[in-house]
Design brief:
8 strands; binds magnesium ion; alpha/beta; globular; 325 residues; binds phosphoenolpyruvate; Phosphoenolpyruvate-protein phosphotransferase of PTS system
């Protein structure tokens, strides 16, 4: 099966009924690019840039960030690169930023919240991303959006970065697609409003599950509750996809759920258009995808939305997979 997956990995990802889906890779740094290019990934759906800021003494400046994004764009050779702005805080510490200790770091000053309060740091990154967008297909994505005002403020910061580059005569892609992570329950609830100010959504199921179930993703005592196949998470994905469709924007899933073979027919059935995952799983995912019929996945997913527990969801999925084989 591994050999079969390897053999088809550079082919387009299609379901059994011939529907295309985008299969993308998650990335933390340039060191991942060999594996990504070898995996058959069609693009990079999530570049977690906070790793560029970790394990060093000061933040990378604009020149360093630009050089890095540029290398990624060049090596991806026409495949799109979705750059997520710094998602610092909680499980991603960056000591030199001098951030105060927090009682509830997951609910604290993290992600976009921190960037909006750190305008110099944010402008530096936005300018570097914009400059890279002149060299190939780049998308920009904001993490941890919980209110519409944050999204509008982030877009304003981006406009300011654009003006700065205009004044200096520096090139960038004026049509750079701008999206956000849907990973906070409030963002799901107001998804139709956020969609009016976004070119795409990417659902972060790691944090979305953590926040929906009030369950720390790093606390071993509560791991059994942290289940992305909980009906509450499935309903949240369903509503997000619905809002995205009505607004005519694309929706991806980039959390760990995107790499789970059990979740795959569910995400396809819910209408997710792009899956972004660890490159090591991409060849097998393409092979799995080719066995699923979209209509049957839709029936499965619709049935799951009215269930009460993760156990019931898993049972239905097992039955679905058994009937397929
Ligand atoms: C997520 O929360 O699902 C996600 C993709 O972001 P991260 O795991 O980097 O928080
Ligand atoms: Mg997250």
């Amino acid at each position: 099966r591994a050999a079969q997956a390897a053999a088809i990995r550079h082919r387009p990802a299609v379901t059994r009924d011939g529907q295309r889906r985008c299969v993308a890779a998650n990335m933390q740094g340039l060191q991942d690019l060999d594996a990504i290019l070898d995996s058959g990934a069609e693009e990079v759906g999530l570049f977690r840039t906070e790793f560029l800021f970790m394990n060093r003494a000061e933040p990378p400046d604009e020149a360093e960030q630009f050089a890095l994004y540029r290398q990624a764009v060049e090596r991806l050779d026409g495949r799109s690169l979705t750059i997520r702005t710094l998602d610092v805080g909680a499980d991603k510490p960056v000591p030199y930023l001098g951030r105060p200790a927090e009682t509830n770091p997951s609910l604290g000053w993290r992600g976009l919240r921190y960037c909006l309060d750190s305008p110099d740091l944010f402008q530096t990154q936005l300018r570097a991303v914009l400059r890279a967008s002149a060299l190939g297909p780049v998308r920009l994505m904001f993490p941890m959006v919980s209110t519409l005002d944050e999204m509008l403020a982030a877009r304003k910061a981006l406009d300011a970065a654009r003006r700065g580059l205009d004044e200096a005569g520096i090139a960038y892609d004026p049509k750079l697609p701008v999206g956000l992570m849907i990973e906070v329950p409030s963002a799901v609830e107001i998804a139709e409003h956020l969609a009016r100010h976004a070119d795409f959504f990417s659902i972060g199921t790691n944090d979305l599950t953590q926040y929906l179930l009030a369950c720390d993703r790093d606390n071993p005592r509560v791991q059994h509750l942290l289940d992305p196949l909980h009906p509450a998470v499935l309903r949240a994905i369903d509503r997000t996809v619905g809002a995205a469709r009505r607004a005519g924007i694309r929706v991806a899933v980039c959390g760990g759920m995107a790499g789970d073979p059990r979740a795959l027919p569910v995400l396809i059935g819910l209408g997710v258009e792009e899956l972004s995952l660890s490159p090591s799983r991409i060849p097998e995912l393409k092979l799995d995808l080719a066995q699923f019929d979209t209509g049957r996945c839709e029936n499965l997913a619709q049935g799951l939305l009215s269930l009460a527990t993760s156990a019931e969801v898993r049972k239905e999925i097992e039955a679905f997979l058994a009937a397929r084989s």
